[in-house]
Amino acid sequence: MPAPSTMAVLAPGFALVALTFAVMAVMYARRFAQMRRDAIAPQAVATSAQSARLLTDSAAADNFRNLLELPLLFYVALLTAVAAGQGGTAVVALAWAFVATRVLHSGFQCLGNRVVPRFLSFIAGAAVLLSLWGRLAWGVWLHG
Question: Is 142 helix (H, G, I), strand (E, B) or coil?
Fold first, then answer.
């Protein structure tokens, strides 16, 4: 079976970027709404300490930050897969599985902040990401 195209390998990355921008939009919508409702001046939340003290709905902001942490290793894995010619079906399937765990994680965090399912989706995503890196390392080791 031929290896998936470069676009098939990169498509999960584009999907995760779209999720990141969607969460960013939710974050700003919630922040601006609270600032308007509570009459908070922009300068009053100029630092992260001030924001933490004054802005009470931080779920979307916390999730946005999460989408810039662990997924960094995901994006590097996708680029590694393309550069090393390791974009087979298993890599693409693992990449989409990781995206699915991040969608679940974002949903649990932004829509009610349910800690246990959010944690389980995070752990599942970390395991999938570890598997993805293991598959890439194995493929590079076997095929140079």
Answer: helix
